[in-house]
Amino acid sequence: MKQYDVTALGELLIDFTENGTSAQGNPLLEANPGGAPCNVLAMLEKLGKKTAFIGKVGKDMFGRQLRQAVESVGIDTRNLMEAIQKREVHYHFVEVMACPGGCVGGGGQPIHEGKELASDRGSNLYFLDKTAHLRFSHENPDIKHLYDEYFGSPGSHKAHQLLHVQK
Hints:
Layout: E1 6-9, E2 13-21, E3 27-34, H1 36-46, E4 51-57, H2 61-72, E5 76-82, E6 111-112, E7 115-116, H3 118-131, H4 141-151, H5 157-163
Parallel strand pairs: 1-4, 4-5
Antiparallel strand pairs: 2-3, 6-7
């Protein structure tokens, strides 16, 4: 039986970060592997520890990118399941996180010298939200255009089919 110093389980995800502007003026997004558990394991591998990860990825280009990123730093992925291939899930979901200051109290947030800073981050985020030009998704011109040109209206059959997950 193979022994590990640390085994982690959790999420692997793609962080889409802005990386310039297209010729049409649209933001270009870059797919970066992420997820706090594997970030910690990668650091431990660099320190000479034997690590393994247990989790799931899709059987698509992002799943392959995530598997390759984890394996390239030496993390054992034999328990990384391809959930779509095993028919455990029947969808792809992409979460785009665009909070300038990060999610308040979310996983992987820094703790400075033993002090939790979620309250300070929260105050800053609420200030940024209060002073933002665009505050609500239903007021976003891109979202309005998407509904006008593709979904029809909020709550339409097409929007419901494509934007809701059934249990």
